[in-house]
Specification:
Inosine-uridine Nucleoside N-ribohydrolase, Chain A, 36% helix, binds beta-D-ribofuranose
Length: 316
């Protein structure tokens, strides 16, 4: 790509971030973690995409979580209602028909913002080159469309933290992780964009499990947020389910809990058997490496930190 990479300004604290998501139970807990960490993260907006459930549910679901967390100042913007080429595949078997099964949350207050997430992402990042981090924890459709509209965006985004992919086994097919499987073409566009990418894939997120004794700690908080988390996790896949998306936000708060390696990541878009697979080649020096990929997690440290942050919510 011929556009010059800007010299990044000094890091800003709190770090401005946009969370692009498809709530989704683990997305909801990732939002709770971010909203509870305002001394470190300034959530500029939550953008939503079709994924775990259709867009007409992910957008109000993000507002329901925002309402619960008392973060009414954060805009929620709906983006793309379908993947670039493929038919939408959802994960309501894991997250329930509403996407937030067991949350006990009331309908979202107010009305939906009419601005389109892709326009907002593109224009907001362009206005602050080198400053804004995107935590992308759903299919990558919104980011891909923004990057097609404006390739320079790859160098204007400070960093993209992606929950998606796997060096090892997938979770929807033997090869593919859900977010990349839903929109593999978008994932390909993002990984080939030249952006600075950190990939928090299944290799590390499978270690971030909500163990029963940890859930008891959360239940003992006995707040609306804690009751929502416990209620949702009772419905989330199997006991001790992995809090995939939470790790993408945690990476911005406590990166020392994780190990990363520079890798080359390539997304399969042609073979119907393996479509959405991320081929991860380790031990690759820059410039061939296009992502830092997470492998090991201090899981007890992760759970302790998340419990501390969820404990910050009172009777909101
Ligand atoms: C990813 O898929 C979704 O179901 C979760 O929200 C997470 O983003 C894990 O593969
Ligand atoms: Ca998600």
């Amino acid at each position: 790509m011929s556009v010059p990479r800007p010299i990044l300004p000094e890091p800003i604290i709190p770090r401005p971030i946009i969370i692009d998501c498809d709530p989704g139970i683990d997305d909801a807990i990732a939002l709770m973690l971010a909203f509870a960490s305002s001394e470190t993260l300034e959530v500029l907006a939550v953008t939503t995409v079709a994924g775990n459930v259709p867009l007409h549910l992910t957008e109000p679901n993000a507002r329901r979580v925002r309402d619960l967390c008392g973060a009414s100042q954060v805009p929620v913007l709906a983006g793309c209602p379908r993947p670039l080429l493929r038919r939408l595949v959802t994960a309501d078997d894991i997250h329930g028909a509403s996407g937030l099964e067991g949350s006990g949350l009331p309908p979202a207050r107010g009305t939906a913002d009419t601005r389109h997430a892709v326009d907002w992402l593109r224009d907001t990042i362009r206005a602050r080159p080198g400053e804004i981090t995107v935590a992308a924890v759903g299919p990558l459709t919104n980011l891909a469309v923004a990057l097609v509209q404006r390739p320079e965006l790859a160098y204007e985004i400070r960093e993209i933290i992606i929950m998606g992919g796997a060096a090892g086994a997938g979770n929807v097919t033997p090869d593919a992780e859900f977010n990349f499987h839903v929109d593999p073409h978008a994932a390909r566009i993002v990984f080939e964009s030249g952006a600075s990418i950190t990939m928090v894939g299944l290799d590390i997120t499978r270690q971030a499990r909500a163990l029963p004794e940890w859930l008891q700690t959360i239940a003992a908080l006995d707040t609306p947020v804690a009751r929502c988390v416990v209620g949702m996790l009772a419905h989330y896949g199997s006991v001790g389910g992995s809090l995939h998306d939470v790790l993408a936000v945690m990476q911005l708060l406590r990166p020392e809990l994780m190990t990363f390696e520079a890798c080359r990541v390539e997304i399969e878009i042609e073979d119907p058997e393996t479509i959405g697979k991320s081929r991860v080649t380790r031990g690759v020096p820059p410039p061939e490496a296009n992502a830092q990929v997470g492998f090991a997690l201090d899981a007890p440290g992760f759970r302790a930190f998340l419990a501390e942050r969820l404990g910050r919510y009172g009777a909101v």
